[in-house]
Amino acid sequence: MNDALKAKPVMLVVVLGAVCAVAAVVLGLVYGATKPRIEAEEVKAKEQALRDVHPGAMRFEQITTEHAVDGTPFVYYEAYNADNVLVGYAFEGHANGYSSTIELTVGLDKDEQTITGIKITKQQETPGLGANCVKSGGSKYIWEIFSRAEAAGEDTGFQSQFSNLAVNALGDDGIPSNVRALSGATITTNAVLRALRTAISDYQVASGRDSKMTVSGATQKDHVDGPGDGQ
User: Fold this and answer.
1) What is residue 132's predicted lDDT score, i.e. its pLDDT?
2) What global pTM score does this model have?
3) DSSP three-state, residue 165
4) pLDDT at position 7, please?
5) What residue ranges of the chain have pLDDT lower than 70?
């Protein structure tokens, strides 16, 4: 009787170990089978983001620089139109938001003075608040829903306001007067702006053009806003 009782825990451990081993093998096989598809989707998403910030571009040429950000060489892209004429540049940036790291792609015109657009590619901010940073069109305020821009069919989403925005209009820090903040999501709004400023600053240094155009207030390292966001 005692031997039988002692054997039960051992058998349970053996069975549990076998189940864990089988589960690990199955997960490994699933990951191996899906990894190429995941990587392909990531490449597709990156290409789409580049086209979103440079709608008129037909191809992009990747430039890997010696400037390192977080230990990784900074990469930017030259955008060319159908006539193979350079129309601008694009690159990526990130910043810590309220509950996630916000990643975005930024486009600049060929003179590097105007933002052609931004595309937020990854975020997990608060649904209904910070997560509205990726929503297009519409506003929660009735007088904006029936605004002239809405009536004309223009995209009045948060990201669209950065299209054709002068780089120097970003200001030094905080939320400039010409940028409409997300309602109830100050930290998310500031995070997007910080990611944008820092990305442009990194691009300037990496491309060797920092003497030509400077964004004040952008720093190499990101920081997290403190409490008081209201999100």
Assistant:
1) 96
2) 0.72
3) strand
4) 60
5) 1-8, 31, 33, 35-36, 38-39, 137-156, 210-231
For 163-180, letters b (16+ CB in 10 Å) and e give bebebeebbeeebeeebe
The full DSSP string for 168-204 is: GGG-SSS--TTS-PPTT-HHHHHHHHHHHHHHHHHHH
Among candidate residues 33, 89, 32, the one with its CA nearest the CA of residue 62: 89
Which helix (H) or strand (E) is 138 found in, with range? none
Q: How far apart, in whole angstroms, are the C-alpha atoms of residue 52 and residue 97?
A: 22
CA distances, 23 to each of 18, 19, 33, 38, 41 (Å): 9, 6, 15, 21, 26
Give the Å distances, CA to CA, from 123 to 17, 134, 156: 37, 9, 20
**What is the pLDDT at residue 2?**
60
Q: Supply the pLDDT for residue 29.
A: 72
Q: Say how far apart CA 179 and CA 172 lie, in whole Å.
A: 13
Is there a contact between 162 and 118 (Cβ–Cβ < 8 Å)?
Answer: yes
Instruction: Give the Cα separation of 115 and 160 in Å (integer).
Output: 11
Structure confidence at residue 43 (pLDDT) = 74
Nearest of 83, 27, 36, 70 to residue 202 by alpha carbon = 70
The residue assigned the tokens 């595309």 is 119
On whether the CB atoms of residues 49 and 121 are closer than 8 A, the answer is yes
Q: How far apart are CA 182 and CA 192, in angstroms?
A: 11
The two three-digit tokens of residue 40, written as one number: 């392909």
